[in-house]
Specification:
Elements lengths: L9 H7 L19 H9 L8 E6 L4 E7 L5 E8 L2 E2 L17 E5 L4 E2 L7 E3 L5 H5 L8 E3 L8 E2 L2 H16 L5 E6 L5 H6 L6 H17 L5 E4 L2 E4 L23 H19 L5 E3 L8 H10 L1 H8 L9 H6 L3 E3 L1
Helix pairs in contact: 6-7, 8-9
C-alpha cells in the first residue's frame, strides 16, 4: 500500500499515519504485534501495552478513539483513527436491514474478536445489548472491521483495524474481561447538543451524554445499568441492580456531583446557544459518512484507487456516491 499522498496537509498525514503499513502478512494478521511507534507513544504517556482500554466512536466526525489506562489509574487518549465508512444516519440501530451503525454502550470480550473476518480483522460490538434486546431491536454481526465498506458496521481500513485489533487483543490477553465501546452520534458538546435539539433522537442522545460525561469527568468506563427503557450510569440502587430494562428505575442513592455539574453546565450552555439563535441542523445522510481525509481521496482518485488503498483484497467502497454527497446540512 502506498503512503498517504503528500498533498494532504501535514496534520492529516500524521492523523492517518497509523493506517498505513506494508509489513502485515495475511497469514498471521491476527498475531502481529502492536507497532513499535505506538508502543513508544504508550510509554511516553505512562501506559503499557497490556493495560485496559476503552473505545469511543463518533459518527458525525467519523473518528474512533482508543483510550488506555495510564500509571495514574485513569484512562487517557492513546490515539484517534479516521473512519473510512459507516452506514445509515445519525441515530440508533433498531432493526435488521436498516443499515444503521449502532449507537450505545457495548462490551467486547475475547471471544468477540474475529481473526478470520472477510474484512481483514474485526470485533463484534455485541449489538443488540440487553437494553436493545428488551426494546425489541434486531440485528446481528455489527462490527468494527477493515476495508471501506459498511452495511451497519464501522469500517476502519485494513491497516487501521489491524492496529486497533492488536491493542485490543493485548489488553484482553492480559486479563481485561471485556473492554467498553461507547458509540455516539457526534462529539457531545453543548454546541452539538444545541444544534441537534430538534432531532427525534434527542432524548436518547441525552441519556448517552450522561455516560459520556461520566467518562469525561472520572476518566474510567462508567458502570452501565438498564431501567426505564434507557441507560443509567454509575448508579447505586437501594434495591440492587435493576433486572428488567423496561421497568421503572429503583430509587437511586445519588449522582456524582462533578458529573452532574458538567451535565448541568452543558445543558445551560446549550439552552443559551439555542436562545441566541444557533441553527438547529439535520444531517441528512443518504447512507452514512466518511472521514474527510478519505472523502478527498475518493473524490480525487476514484473508488477503485481508494479500495486498493484501504483493503488488501480490494473490497469495493460501499455506496461511493453517498459517501461523496454526505453530509450536507439542512437549516430548519
Amino acid at each position: 500500500m502506498r503512503l498517504i499522498d503528500t498533498v494532504l496537509t501535514l496534520a492529516m498525514v500524521g492523523f492517518l499515519a497509523g493506517c498505513v503499513s506494508t509489513t502485515l502478512d495475511l497469514d498471521d494478521k491476527a498475531t502481529q504485534p502492536i507497532p513499535a511507534s505506538l508502543v513508544s507513544d504508550m510509554k511516553r504517556k505512562g501506559m503499557t501495552p497490556d493495560a485496559p482500554i476503552v473505545v469511543r466512536i463518533f459518527k458525525e466526525e467519523s473518528e474512533l478513539e482508543i483510550w488506555k489506562r495510564d500509571r495514574s489509574g485513569r484512562f487517557a487518549l492513546l490515539k484517534t483513527y479516521p473512519m473510512c465508512r459507516w452506514s445509515g444516519k445519525l441515530g440508533p440501530k433498531t432493526r435488521t436491514g436498516d443499515r444503521q451503525a449502532p449507537e450505545g454502550f457495548y462490551h467486547v470480550s475475547a471471544d468477540m474478536l474475529n481473526p478470520k473476518s472477510q474484512y481483514h480483522l474485526s470485533f463484534d460490538l455485541g449489538y443488540p445489548n440487553r437494553l436493545e434486546q428488551a426494546l425489541g431491536y434486531t440485528g446481528e454481526a455489527l462490527m468494527v472491521h477493515g476495508a471501506c465498506s459498511s452495511s451497519g458496521c464501522y469500517a476502519m481500513t485494513d491497516d487501521g483495524v489491524a492496529e486497533i485489533y492488536a491493542v485490543a487483543r493485548e489488553a484482553l490477553r492480559a486479563g481485561q474481561g471485556a473492554f467498553q465501546v461507547q458509540a455516539f452520534p457526534f462529539r457531545m458538546t453543548a454546541k452539538k447538543m444545541a444544534e441537534h435539539r430538534s432531532d427525534p433522537n434527542f432524548a436518547f442522545w441525552q441519556t448517552l451524554k450522561d455516560g459520556h460525561d461520566s467518562f469525561e469527568v472520572k476518566r474510567r468506563p462508567p458502570r452501565v445499568s438498564y431501567c426505564d427503557k434507557r441507560y443509567v450510569f454509575d448508579a447505586g440502587f437501594d434495591d440492587g441492580e435493576p433486572s428488567d430494562p423496561l421497568s421503572a428505575c429503583p430509587p437511586v442513592l445519588g449522582a456524582d456531583p462533578a458529573v452532574a455539574a458538567l451535565s448541568s453546565s452543558d445543558l445551560l450552555m446549550a439552552e443559551k446557544l439555542a436562545t441566541e439563535g444557533i441553527a438547529s441542523v439535520g444531517h441528512a445522510y443518504s447512507d452514512g459518512g466518511m472521514h474527510p481525509s478519505f472523502r478527498r481521496l475518493l473524490e480525487r482518485n476514484g473508488e477503485q484507487a481508494l479500495a486498493r488503498r484501504t483493503s488488501r483484497t480490494k473490497v469495493p467502497i460501499s455506496r461511493p456516491e453517498a459517501a461523496l454527497a454526505d453530509p450536507y446540512v439542512e437549516e430548519k
